[in-house]
Write a structure and sequence with these properties.
about 425 residues, alpha+beta, 9 helices
């Protein structure tokens, strides 16, 4: 009894563990994406703040050097007998020409020489007016203005406006800015690649899950029919009636053959890196297309109408087996996805290439799915509705065959209007 309980608990644990990873993977996918984006934004903010602070430090340092040059020049030119911090000036001599003689060398010494102009202001009852200027005022693009008192009473002040060398600051930081931008771009590229890879993995997982779901439905039908026929032979005295026995055995054989063909087709197409055998022969397309259209739609209960426009002489050098399967796949889809199938088949031969267009009047495919229809296991999502059987390998195989013959296959479709598949193959007559 204890063993049974443990087995049940173990089964519950395995079931829970088998279900939770999908939920956890979605949660982790969302959290990792958010974390990666937040990290990138944080890095960009940190880099921006770092660059801005270095820029601000450069501006502050320039202001400090200019103010230092101003004070030095004032004490040498205007207050020659003053001792800063110890003794005031007994007299003040204001001469802007003398100020320039000291100020420009001080700026040069402090590596801050830029275009400037100076004015002497007289402060009267809180109002200032210009009483002295030095030459013509130059045009400054980004002026920085500093006002410093000249005398001890604060009656006179010196106003100095000097051009702020923003371009110099930026040129000195060019390497830093370039490296910061390069790091952000590199990490952004890595993040985009990571997110795209995660999306692809998620899509691939969904496609594999849909494939498993679809193939389960595909395999259940012949198995169920075969089991039912076998059960009838065993339990309902069908064995006593030779005709009935023969009919039931024929049903079993047909279903097992269909099942074997289906499994073989899945295994052959789904092998990674499979190299298809290529036995080229001269193939007349009208003959092949006519043969394929005669048997098309028999398993669906539909009566498709085929309009064939193909000259008898059009031929290609190709593998007949694979070309037949390629065309059969496209025609089968045209019939399956149409309520009252009307299929137009147009074949043209020009410039060494043969173009085959197969147009139907089916349900069509939405634009967002067209770029994925030739991918392995991909089927246009229909939820839990399985009115049309398939396992997402037919068009993948068709693309492989077209590429095997150095050709291309493409699809154009509109929802509710139908689909056109275009196959281009080289004629290769030689």
């Amino acid at each position: 009894m204890l063993t049974n309980v443990n087995s049940v608990s173990k089964a519950k644990f395995i079931t829970t563990f088998a279900i939770n990873p999908l939920k956890m993977s979605r949660k982790y996918f969302r959290n990792i994406s958010i974390l990666a984006i937040a990290s990138l934004l944080s890095l960009a903010v940190v880099q921006s703040v770092w660059v801005y602070r270095m820029y601000s430090d450069s501006v502050t340092d320039f202001k400090r050097r200019v103010e230092s040059a101003i004070y030095k020049s004032i004490y040498k030119a205007f207050r020659m007998d003053a001792i800063p911090g110890l003794a005031d000036a007994k007299y003040v001599k204001i001469n802007l020409d003398d100020f320039s003689l000291y100020f420009e060398p001080n700026l040069m010494e402090l590596d801050a020489l830029q275009p400037y102009y100076a004015e002497v202001l007289f402060n009267d009852d809180g109002k200032s007016r210009v009483v002295m200027t030095n030459g013509e005022r130059p045009v400054l693009n980004n002026p920085m203005t500093t006002v410093v008192p000249i005398d001890d009473d604060g009656s006179y002040s010196l106003l100095v406006s000097i051009e702020m060398p923003f371009k110099v600051f930026l040129s000195r930081m060019q390497g830093l800015i370039a490296s910061s931008v390069a790091i952000v771009i590199l990490l952004a590229g890595v993040l985009i690649y990571l997110v795209r890879t995660m999306f692809r993995q998620k899509t691939l997982e969904e496609m594999r899950r849909d494939f498993t779901h679809n193939i389960t439905h595909e395999l259940k039908t012949p198995i169920s029919v075969a089991v039912t026929a076998t059960d009838a032979l065993r339990n309902f005295s069908a064995d006593a009636n030779p005709d009935r026995r023969s009919r039931y055995l024929e049903i079993v054989e047909t279903q097992l053959t269909q099942l074997s063909t289906m499994v073989e087709h899945i295994l052959s197409v789904s092998e990674e890196g499979r190299e298809y055998k290529y036995n080229p022969t001269v193939v007349y397309l009208q003959e092949i297309i006519s043969g394929l259209t005669q048997g098309a739609g028999m398993n669906t209960g539909k009566k498709p109408v085929f309009n064939i426009d193909c000259a008898e002489h059009i031929k290609i050098l190709a593998d007949e087996f694979h070309i037949k399967n390629l065309l059969a796949t496209v025609l089968d889809n045209a019939v399956k996805y149409s309520t009252d199938p009307i299929v137009d088949i147009r074949v043209s031969d020009e410039s060494g290439n043969v173009t085959i267009e197969i147009e139907d009047n089916g349900c069509g495919i939405a634009k967002e799915h067209l770029s994925h229809v030739f991918e392995k296991f991909y089927r246009v999502p229909t939820g839990d509705i399985h009115t049309v059987r398939g396992y997402g390998l037919g068009l993948y195989y068709a693309k492989q065959v077209a590429e095997l013959h150095k050709g291309t296959i493409s699809m154009n479709s509109r929802v509710g209007k139908g689909t056109t598949v275009t196959i281009k193959l080289p004629r290769n007559e030689q």
